[in-house]
């Protein structure tokens, strides 16, 4: 393994010993926190040793352990900094870098609820996968970018990504039927901005993918567009309930649909 690799292993073992010593009741009162800080330092030293030994996976895992401990200590900004894995890009290990950026994104998504950082790291992971021509993995990350971009009200970016992924799915016999889901989400993003944008988008999707025309998603979108044009918030809500009773909508959809409904209710009634 080499000297640096052996040092990395030793630092890991020392870090784990420090953590075991923080688990007792007395330790939690007398110095438990300082031992956790020492364990974090040891994990970082282990990661740096593994980097020098070109043990990329071990280095990444050690950084992740340090970051997780920082999260427990509520040092949230430090947690993000420890998990910046730029060294993989320098070494051409794009797939490894992508996986670690996904790990970072998942922490920001679930632990820190920071959508901006979540989007940043999923986008970086997607870029790395694209560098390796890993389209399926890149698309998986891009869909996460689209999901959280919409929740940040960046509807244009979200719609463009869903359309891009749908376009790649259409080219694949195995994936083409998943395109309707992506077009569905893209149209709702357009609808959050302007009903005319949504109407034009749906027509474009029908031209690109004729199977979309007869789908429940497309018919639902057309119903929603009609209700918006009629300024019928009650009918809009009923259409959602009817659709949801057969095809349950997750929180992402309900978040966007609520926003669209609020837009209808804020419009003056011209009837």
Automatic annotation (TrEMBL):
GO terms for biological process: intracellular protein transport; SNARE complex disassembly. Keywords: ER-Golgi transport, Membrane, Protein transport, Transport. It is a peripheral membrane protein. It is found in: Membrane. CDD domains: SNAP. One of its GO terms (cellular component) is SNARE complex. The keyword Membrane applies. One of its GO terms (molecular function) is soluble NSF attachment protein activity. Required for vesicular transport between the endoplasmic reticulum and the Golgi apparatus. PANTHER family: ALPHA-SOLUBLE NSF ATTACHMENT PROTEIN, SOLUBLE NSF ATTACHMENT PROTEIN SNAP. Belongs to the SNAP family. This is Alpha-soluble NSF attachment protein. It comes from Dermatophagoides farinae (American house dust mite). The lineage of its organism: Eukaryota, Metazoa, Ecdysozoa, Arthropoda, Chelicerata.
């Amino acid at each position: 393994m080499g000297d640096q690799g052996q040092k990395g292993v030793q630092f890991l073992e020392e870090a784990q010993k420090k953590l075991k010593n923080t688990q007792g009741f007395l330790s939690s009162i007398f110095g438990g926190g300082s031992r956790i800080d020492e364990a974090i330092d040891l994990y970082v030293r282990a990661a740096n040793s593994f980097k020098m030994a070109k043990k990329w996976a071990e280095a990444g895992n050690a950084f992740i352990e340090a970051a997780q401990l920082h999260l427990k200590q509520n040092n949230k900004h430090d947690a993000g900094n420890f998990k910046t894995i730029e060294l993989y890009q320098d070494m051409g290990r794009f797939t490894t870098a992508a996986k670690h950026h996904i790990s970072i994104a998942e922490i920001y998504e679930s632990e820190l609820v920071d959508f901006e950082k979540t989007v940043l790291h999923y986008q970086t992971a997607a870029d790395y996968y694209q560098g390796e021509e890993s389209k399926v993995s890149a698309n998986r990350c891009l869909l996460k970018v689209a999901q959280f971009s919409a929740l940040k009200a960046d509807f244009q970016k979200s719609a463009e990504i869903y359309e891009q992924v749908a376009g790649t799915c259409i080219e694949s016999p195995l994936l083409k039927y998943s395109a309707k889901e992506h077009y569905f989400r893209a149209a709702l993003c357009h609808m959050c901005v302007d009903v005319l944008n949504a109407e034009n988008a749906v027509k474009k999707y029908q031209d690109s993918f004729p199977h979309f025309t007869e789908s429940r998603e497309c018919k639902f979108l057309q119903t929603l567009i009609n209700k918006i044009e009629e300024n019928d918030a009650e009918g809009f809500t009923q259409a959602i309930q009817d659709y949801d009773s057969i095809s349950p909508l997750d929180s992402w959809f309900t978040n966007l649909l609520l926003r669209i409904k609020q837009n209808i209710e804020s419009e003056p009634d011209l009837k």
